[in-house]
Task: inverse folding
């Protein structure tokens, strides 16, 4: 392989550094009108009256849409259920009726010739509400939280084993609401193509999901609506489900019969979705030698009143640590907020935070080195299904990570390490995520000049999909990278899943591989048919495409140039589209793993914390591109630092409203907050999981990071803070 | 944002004449960074903005007087102050404070006059200048006036400026061997608004502190002098017990607000610690 | 539901604010445009001049995605009205490359993978160009400090710093 596994630069790099890359809000149209959204100021109730008269009086205002006068939308809630929607519940229907389900809900769309006019007119829409009592506080609602039925089975008798354990640790850990806050604002530019045809340039992680949603909601035939998102300015999970800018922009375009751009404000984006506030309740019982006897893990998280969103928070210990007795639970507190959503490593970022802090506390209680405890509990099997892994090099992660970090120089005593006036703390944690793979289609068009176009309706949300698609196609077609162009983010392309869960790299790579294999067969047929073909006696299984040629790996000689074979066969182009399905394998667990090591320095008098060093050692199968993969893990570590120290959405529970819905008061790490981050990819060949041995990387980088930092802060200060974020005031006595 | 008109006078006097003492919806705009935010959030809905970009260039200059005082024109950008050779040589504390004030992209636009007139207690410039004994010059339709900088502030986002008055300059006396330092704390990311700002300046005679100025911002509703802390420092040797007494006095006398940057008790603790550190930093000479 | 278009209410229409004609030099080319006073430089560039390389990430001066160079100095284009920049020279990300050759910073950003999603990238590049022109940052710490305020949610900061160092070194040699 020439390109797979190398560190080539992003193929879309030049477009991104010159401003040439067109994002959803960058599309021009001569007939563009602009939208501005009016949002509810109450958390629950109904709209009694909505007066748009003053707004309509402003010159340049074209229309104001509300639930009273909008174009037709589907009545059935099922039509609003997108591919990623929670199973239980009915999705929010924007501008559908007078009901208010959360503060910040869109209730009117102002359309104007210029966006400044729309924005001004939006402030003139007068709304009267009939407000109802509401609830937004997890700490209050936790008592009413209902258990969900979930597939994780308990093992043994966790309660009894806990009672019998020599060393016990029980605690609650808390993760507040966090927001994805991608830098790009949510935006939809709907081009009115005439004849009822629409092209929707939307900020999304899944163009076909948005297309299916819009076609369902507006009863539009799929061939009349195309969704485009070739570049996406960051998602982190917020763009998995269609967000309301898309249906609202379509409503606007239908009402005006012209093109519409709707950009949400940063503040409005806070009412789209978020990582749910979650309480992680852990109880660990161990023998004094450090083997686990009992694990109990229950998560209590918020969801909306209208949908049950939840992910696996509590089951990760079943993959990491051997324990004969375990029980898992998940309860949901229904609050008057929008439905939460996936956010980078949903369930694991939160659940493993609780688990890995609890393991650290257990190690302290056992007077064991935290790595040693983890090695003594190391599980070679997924205990939920009692199956081995396709591969699991977590031991190597511990070893290589510890070596790079210099863990052996750690003094186990708290408050024992100093740098000048600062306390120094070293902490570690494990990480784990799923290595999913989803059926995906790809199309390759090979032209007689030796150029290939590879296409799939997947997304590149900054993860590097463009680049790995080009790498895989170039290698499997035996072409130089420059001879491959990639098309994605267009709903008319071959079927692809939303980009999430770390499944896309494996999924689309194998779709390309399978399609390239069909191309290989066709080229072989063409080459064999040539007069005096050197491949006349060859067998398909020996045929490879290398350096622009069709070669016989068993034969001698240089084979046949691809271009010659195509010309001779009078083929200008070979076009092939296939869908790759992954064989079901119930005999193995598929996971990625990591070990994270963090150093913090704490100003003792003030509690000021700096994360000065992080090493993240990751085992995630074959790494397609070491440059972009390193960036992904590094970026996830930055996200983990934010989670540990900065990020928290505050709610005024007397108003049911988010208070810091801007990125000056919702803190995300800035350049000066980030110091040394080292990423290690542990070699992890995997011949079972899929032919190319790919596992995916989007989530694993953040899992465990906040725990490693929290554990380091404990090591530095002797103070255990279990509620994120760990702010200065929590460290002071 | 609501509709407004923008006028651009060619002189300071014309600018003053375009303002209206009775009309709060007519406001001058210099750099406009703070005003822009208030307009975008709807807090401020002007009818007319008087853009000061076209007034006499002398109001953008930083000049050195014979007595060593620096006169900073109100239309000088914060970046100009940061880069000015006289500021660097004579008031290094001011240069350093500018460096962490907001970010370069704001400093390139924001003007000294606007930063002082805005009355936002979280800003860095007012406490530093107040601790350096700076005085502001103010022009009105009939007469000009001048006052110590800390007297400009009447409350949270409130100043004593009339609606048709403009700050024309701020004058900072020569340090004459006085020591000075400014420290601020941001409680979350490095870019956050401060939870607390503490500025100090003082003379030293025979090992004792003379005529200290201690100014606190961000944690208080307005830039405030800590007179008890100053009294605790006056004529005392800057040893640990003195600094502790001064820190405690400041923590006691300051009226501190709880907000998203920290609770009042936390900020009180910060003040106790930071006052000590600010005096030490001023002494250390790393400051000067 | 039947679609009923709202009638404009009786009474006078309130006119939108009057437009003022201004001149800018954008990426070396003179541009003239008529804008109302409430139009920011950012919206003038993106929606009136078609220069969409400059991004809007917050519209409140908090993220730095809209950073452009005005008269050589980096500013947040969302925080200034276009009419206040009449006569100014503006450089956007589209104006960094010369004659089809990438600016050393652009090449360094590609080499060091200093971006993922790309929506902060134009702001980072213009900010870094301003930083280099200011000629003051030399250490990693100084670059970090002086590039703070240009948020990158993908977390490419260490790569951004490395890229800026590379471009600075190339410029020195």
Result:
């Amino acid at each position: 392989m020439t390109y797979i596994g190398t560190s080539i630069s992003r193929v879309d790099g030049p477009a991104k550094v010159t401003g040439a890359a067109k994002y959803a809000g960058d599309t021009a149209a001569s007939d563009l009108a602009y939208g501005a959204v009016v949002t509810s100021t109450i958390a629950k109730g109904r709209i009694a009256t909505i007066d748009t008269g003053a707004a309509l009086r402003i010159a340049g205002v074209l229309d104001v849409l509300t639930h009273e006068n909008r174009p037709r939308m589907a009545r059935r809630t099922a039509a609003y259920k997108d591919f990623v929607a929670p199973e239980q519940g009915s999705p929010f229907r924007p501008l559908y009726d007078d009901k208010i389900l959360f503060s910040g809900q869109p209730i009117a769309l102002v359309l104007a010739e210029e966006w400044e006019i729309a924005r001004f007119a939006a402030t003139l829409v007068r709304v009267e509400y009939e407000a109802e009592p509401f609830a937004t506080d997890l700490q209050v609602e936790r008592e009413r939280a209902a258990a969900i039925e979930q597939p994780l089975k308990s093992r043994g008798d966790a309660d009894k084993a806990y009672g019998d354990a020599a060393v016990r640790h029980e605690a609650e850990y808390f993760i507040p609401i966090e927001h994805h806050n991608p830098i790009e604002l949510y935006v939809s530019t709907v081009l009115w193509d005439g004849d009822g045809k629409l092209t929707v340039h939307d900020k999304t992680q899944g163009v076909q999901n948005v297309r299916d949603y819009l076609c369902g909601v507006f009863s539009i035939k799929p061939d009349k609506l195309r969704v485009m998102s070739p570049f996406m300015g960051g998602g982190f999970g917020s763009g998995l489900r269609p967000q309301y800018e898309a249906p609202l922009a379509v409503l606007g375009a239908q009402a005006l019969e012209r093109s519409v751009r709707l950009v949400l404000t940063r503040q409005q984006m806070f009412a789209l979705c978020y990582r749910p506030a979650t309480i992680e309740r852990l109880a660990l019982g161990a023998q004094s030698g450090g083997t686990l006897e009992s694990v109990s893990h229950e998560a209590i998280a918020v969801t909306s009143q209208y949908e049950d969103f939840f992910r696996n928070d509590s089951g990760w210990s079943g993959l990491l640590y051997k324990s004969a007795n375990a029980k898992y639970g998940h309860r949901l507190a229904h609050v008057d907020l929008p439905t939460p959503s996936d956010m980078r490593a949903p369930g694991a970022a939160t659940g493993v935070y609780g688990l890995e802090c609890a393991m650290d506390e257990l190690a302290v209680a056992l007077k064991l080195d935290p790595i040693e405890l983890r090695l003594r509990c190391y599980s070679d099997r997924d205990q939920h299904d009692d199956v081995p892994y396709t591969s699991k090099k977590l031991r190597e992660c511990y070893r290589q990570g510890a070596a790079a970090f210099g863990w052996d120089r750690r003094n186990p005593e708290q408050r024992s390490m100093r740098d000048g006036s600062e306390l120094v703390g070293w902490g570690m944690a494990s990480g784990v995520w799923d290595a999913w793979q989803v059926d995906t289609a790809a199309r390759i068009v090979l032209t007689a000049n030796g150029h290939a176009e590879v296409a799939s309706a997947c997304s590149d949300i900054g993860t590097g999909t463009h680049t790995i698609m080009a790498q895989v196609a170039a290698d499997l077609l035996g072409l130089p990278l420059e001879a491959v162009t990639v098309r994605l983010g267009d709903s008319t392309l071959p079927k692809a899943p939303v980009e999430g869960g770390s499944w896309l790299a494996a999924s689309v790579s194998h779709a390309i591989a399978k399609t390239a294999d069909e191309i290989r067969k066709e080229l072989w047929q063409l080459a064999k048919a040539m007069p005096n073909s050197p491949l006349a006696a060859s067998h398909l299984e020996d045929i490879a495409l290398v350096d622009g040629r069709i070669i016989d790996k068993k034969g001698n000689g240089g084979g046949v140039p691809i271009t010659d074979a195509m010309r001779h066969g009078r083929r200008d182009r070979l076009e092939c589209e296939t869908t790759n399905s992954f064989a079901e394998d119930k005999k193995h667990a598929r996971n990625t793993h990591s070990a994270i090591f963090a150093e913090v320095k704490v100003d003792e008098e003030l509690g000021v914390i700096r994360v000065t060093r992080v090493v993240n050692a990751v085992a995630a199968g074959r790494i397609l591109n070491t440059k972009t993969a390193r960036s992904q893990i590094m970026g996830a570590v930055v996200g983990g630092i934010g989670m540990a120290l900065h990020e928290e959405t505050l709610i005024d529970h007397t108003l049911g409203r988010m208070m810091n819905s801007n990125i000056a008061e919702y803190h995300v790490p800035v350049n000066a907050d980030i110091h040394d981050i080292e990423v290690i990819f542990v070699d992890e060949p995997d011949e079972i999981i899929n032919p190319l041995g790919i596992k995916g990387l989007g989530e694993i980088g953040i899992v465990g990071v906040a725990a490693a930092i929290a554990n380091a802060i404990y090591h530095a200060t002797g103070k255990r803070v279990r509620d994120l974020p760990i702010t200065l005031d929590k460290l002071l006595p | 944002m609501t509709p407004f008109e923008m006028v651009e006078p060619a002189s300071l006097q014309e600018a003053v004449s375009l303002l209206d003492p009775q009309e709060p919806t007519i406001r001058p705009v210099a750099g406009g960074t703070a005003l822009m935010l208030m307009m975008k959030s709807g807090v401020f809905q002007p009818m007319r903005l008087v853009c000061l970009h076209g007034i006499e260039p002398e109001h953008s200059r930083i000049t050195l007087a014979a007595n060593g005082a620096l006169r900073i024109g109100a239309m000088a950008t914060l970046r100009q102050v940061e880069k000015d050779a006289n500021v660097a040589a004579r008031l290094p504390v001011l240069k350093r404070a500018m460096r962490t004030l907001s970010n370069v992209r704001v400093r390139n636009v924001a003007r000294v006059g606007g930063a002082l007139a805005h009355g936002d207690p979280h800003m860095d410039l007012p406490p530093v200048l107040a601790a350096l004994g700076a005085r502001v010059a103010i022009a009105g339709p009939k007469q000009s006036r001048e006052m110590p900088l800390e007297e400009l502030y009447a409350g949270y986002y409130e100043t004593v400026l009339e609606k048709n008055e403009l700050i024309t300059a701020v004058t900072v006396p020569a340090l004459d061997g006085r020591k000075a330092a400014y420290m601020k704390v941001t409680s979350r990311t490095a870019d956050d608004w401060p939870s607390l700002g503490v500025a100090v300046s003082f003379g030293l005679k025979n090992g004792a502190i003379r005529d200290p100025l201690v100014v606190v911002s961000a944690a208080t509703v307005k830039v405030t002098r800590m007179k008890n802390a100053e009294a605790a420092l006056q004529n005392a040797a800057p040893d640990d017990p003195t600094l502790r007494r001064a820190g405690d006095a400041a923590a006691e006398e300051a009226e501190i607000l709880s907000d998203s940057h920290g609770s009042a008790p936390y900020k009180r603790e910060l003040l106790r610690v930071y006052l000590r550190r600010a005096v030490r930093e001023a002494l250390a000479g790393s400051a000067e | 539901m039947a679609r009923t278009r709202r009638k404009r209410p009786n009474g006078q229409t309130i006119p939108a604010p009057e437009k003022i004609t201004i001149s800018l030099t954008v990426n070396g080319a003179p541009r003239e445009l008529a804008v109302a006073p409430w139009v920011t430089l950012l919206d003038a560039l993106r929606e009136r001049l078609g220069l969409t390389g400059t991004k809007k990430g917050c519209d409140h001066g908090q993220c730095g995605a809209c950073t452009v160079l005005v008269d050589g100095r980096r500013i947040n284009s969302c925080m200034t009205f276009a009419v206040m920049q009449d006569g100014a020279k503006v450089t956007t990300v589209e104006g960094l490359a010369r004659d089809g050759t990438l600016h050393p910073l652009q090449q360094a950003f590609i080499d060091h993978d200093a971006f993922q999603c790309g929506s902060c990238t134009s702001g980072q590049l213009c900010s870094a160009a301003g930083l280099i022109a200011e000629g003051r940052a030399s250490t990693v710490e100084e670059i970090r400090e002086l590039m703070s305020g240009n948020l990158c949610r993908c977390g490419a900061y260490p790569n951004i710093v490395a890229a800026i160092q590379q471009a600075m070194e190339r410029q020195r040699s």
In short: The domain at 179-284 of chain B is CATH 3.30.390.50 (Enolase-like; domain 1).
